[in-house]
Amino acid sequence: MSGSLTWDCYFLKVPDMRIILASASPRRKELLKYLGIEFDIVIPDIHEHVRDEEPPEAFCSRISREKALAVRKEFKDSLIIAADTIVVIDGEILGKPKNSDDACSYLRRLSGRRHTVFTAYTILFPSGDDEVTRVVSSTVHFADMREDDIIWYVSTGEPMDKAGAYGLQGIGAAFVDRIDGSFTNVIGLPLAEVFKDIKPFIMLKKNSSGGINA
C-alpha cells in the first residue's frame, strides 16, 4: 500500500472548553500531544526558589501549583495543566546547569549511581474549586561515564537546558542503564497519571455536550 494515512489526532476535543499547558518545556508539549489532546500553551511567570528546609518533593509540588495558579488568573474557565520536574541525588536538587562546568560537575555526580526524578503536576479544573496536585517519582540508574564521555556530551549542548544536565529523550539515553518507574515522568510529565486524572472530566464534558467534536 502506498501513500499515507491521515486522521484527526485530537480525539479528546472538548467543545466550549479550553485546555492549557502552563509550561515552556518543548518536552512536555510533545508528551501531551501523545494523548491526542487539543491544547494551547501559556508560559507562567513565577520565581522558582527553594525555601529553607523545604524537601524536594514539597518544592516541586509547590512550584507546579504556583505555575497553574499564575495562568489561572487570566484563564479562569480553562482546564490548566502545569508541572515541575527535578533531579535529586544525595538529597540535593540538581537544577539546570548554569554553564558547561556546572553540567560536567552534575554528570560526574550522576555517573555510575542512581538518582530520583520527581515530577509534580497540577490540574486546575474549570469549575473553580476542583484541583489535583500529585508527585510521581522514578529512579534512574546511570551508567559509568568516562571523563571524555562527559566532556563530549556537554559539548553537544543538550544538557544545558535540562534538570540534572541530561535528556532522556535525546543523547542522554545512551548513559542510562535502567529506569524504575515512569519513563515519561523522567522526561517531564507522567502521562499515565495525568491521563487518569483528566479523562473522567473530559469524557463527562463530551457526554454532556452531545458527543465528540471531531
Which structural class fits the helix and strand makeup? alpha/beta
Order of helices and strands: EHEHEEHEEHEHH
Quaternary structure type = single chain
Distance between the termini: 26 Å
SS elements, strand count: 7
Shape estimate:
elongated
Strand content: 15-25%
| Largest sheet descriptor | 7 strands, mixed
Percent helix, as a range, is 25-40%
Tally of separate helices? 6
Integer-rounded radius of gyration: 19 Å
- Overall mean pLDDT: 88
Unreliable segments of 5+ consecutive residues: 1-10, 210-214
Features:
214 residues; alpha/beta; seven-stranded mixed beta sheet; 7 strands; 22% strand; disordered N terminus; disordered C terminus
How would you concisely characterize the structure shown here?
By secondary structure, the chain is an alpha/beta fold. It is built from 6 helices and 7 strands; from the N terminus they run E-H-E-H-E-E-H-E-E-H-E-H-H.
Please describe what this structure looks like.
The protein is built from six helices and seven strands; from the N terminus they run E-H-E-H-E-E-H-E-E-H-E-H-H. The protein has helices at 26-33, 56-72, 100-110, 147-155, 183-187, 191-209; strands at residues 19-22, 40-41, 79-89, 92-94, 114-124, 131-142, 176-180. Strands 1, 2, 3, 4, 5, 6 and 7 form a seven-stranded mixed β-sheet that branches. Helix 3 (100-110) crosses helix 4 (147-155). Residues 1-10 and 210-214 have low confidence and may be disordered.
Helix/strand layout:
Blueprint: E1 19-22, H1 26-33, E2 40-41, H2 56-72, E3 79-89, E4 92-94, H3 100-110, E5 114-124, E6 131-142, H4 147-155, E7 176-180, H5 183-187, H6 191-209
Parallel strand pairs: 1-2, 1-3
Antiparallel strand pairs: 3-4, 3-5, 5-6, 6-7
Helix pairs in contact: 3-4
